[in-house]
Amino acid sequence: QSFFRNRHFINLEDFTKEEVETMLEVSFDLKKKFAMGEPTPYLVNKTMFLIFFEQSTRTRNSMEAGLAQLGGHAGYLDSSTMQVSHGESAKDTAIILSSFGHAIACRYCNWGYGNKYLTEMARWAKVPVMNLQCDLYHPFQALADLMTMKEKFGKLERLKVSIIWAYAESHKKPISVPVSQVLLFPRYGMDVVLAHPKGWELPDWVIAQAKANAEKYGGTVTVTDDEEYAYRNAHIVIPKNWGNWVTDQTGLTAAGAVKVVDEKLMAHKSWKCTEEKMALADKDVVYMHALPADRNNEVEDAVIDGPHSIVYDEAENRLHTAKAVMTLLMGGR
Ligand code: CP
Questions:
Q1: Which one, of 324, 322, 331, 326, lies nearest residue 26 by Cα?
Q2: How far is the CA of 132 from the centre of ligand 1 (A)?
Q3: Domains parsed from the chain with CATH numbers
Q4: What is the pLDDT of residue 166?
Q5: Deepest of 112, 145, 235, 249, by most Cβ within 10 A of its Cβ?
Q6: pLDDT-derived band of residue 246, with 50, 70 and 90 as boundaries?
Q7: 56 lines ligand 1 (CB under 6 A)
Q8: Nearest residue CA, atom 4 of ligand 1?
């Protein structure tokens, strides 16, 4: 598995289907060992730096706990306490941190900046750079989603997975989760439905790439504004982000983020996930959500706390997939 060593993890499209499958195999193995209390000292004495421009619960802690469980150490860096907040370049930050440790990871979701910042760091870093979510991609989330689906269904081909999501390029919000999902799932032969109201389209290049992936691997991609179609007979539904929040688009730091009601999102409150809509789906449908969920606006408690919800399994798998990616890229085995 040395072909993973020192590679960057910015976008799952940079890895072949077989490589993603290897990541899943290692994730399942690490999950089993964690459950059995078996030590996994694959990254002893390895150090990584986690730079966060925005808040996190799952991503930060899956990386920190994960690397500790592998025998290494992760240092958390709030970008507002770093010299990047005074304008230090991605190049200088990447070169310096590379000389202190064995990997750099970064979350930077600011529209138009995040992916560029990560790509620039990757250009100069001498160690793997991992994307903890940018404006365009959230590869750790999509990998954990895929693991959770495999765990629940085994065979993924011909499963109808509906991503019911409200993002538009014009809205200048991060599109990282639906983009990563709509690109990845067709590579596993799934029938992917992307449903949103008119005017909330993902960029054309995303849909074109998703359809190309579907054609290559035997999946399908359908884009619709028909919510009922998305729910009907679905095996997996992923409705997200009708919450009434939006973060500051200009600030570099979490401290600069402001919470305001987003009128454009509120106009589509009717797209909330309800028990009534879930009843249209397959009897064994699962409800997924990357979390955090807005229980007031996105989903009824009866759904997210109900028998079809697998959100906590999905969140737990963030730990195991994070450990797998760190192990493979940082040369753990
Ligand atoms: N899903 C996810 O990335 O969660 P956090 O924002 O808590 O890291």
A1: 324
A2: 9
A3: 2-137+317-329 (3.40.50.1370), 140-314 (3.40.50.1370)
A4: 66
A5: 145
A6: very low
A7: yes
A8: 58
The residue nearest atom 3 of ligand 1, judged by CA position, is: 59
Strand 191-195, strand 160-165: pairing: parallel
Say which range, 107-116, 164-173, 180-189, 264-273, has the weakest mean pLDDT. 164-173
pLDDT tens digits for 81-93?
999 999 999 999 9
Q: Which residue has the tokens 């895929």?
A: 146
248 pLDDT higher than 50: no
Closest ligand 1 atom number to CA of residue 60: 8
Q: What tokens does 151 get?
A: 């765990």
In the reported structure, the alpha carbon of residue 113 is separated from the centroid of ligand 1 by a whole-number distance in angstroms of 19
Residue given tokens 């005017």 in the structure block: 199
At 201, the pLDDT band (50, 70, 90 cuts) reads confident
In short, whether 95's Cβ falls inside 6 Å of ligand 1 is: no
% of the chain with per-residue pLDDT over 90: 80
Q: Rounded to the nearest 5 degrees, what angle is found at the Cα of 111, between the Cα atoms of 110 and 113?
A: 70
**Is any atom of ligand 1 closer than 6 Å to the C-beta of 170?**
no
Measured from the Cα of 54, ligand 1's closest atom is: 6
pLDDT at site 268: 77
CA separation for the pair 233, 281 (Å, rounded) = 4
What's the gap in Å between 7 CA and the centre of ligand 1? 23
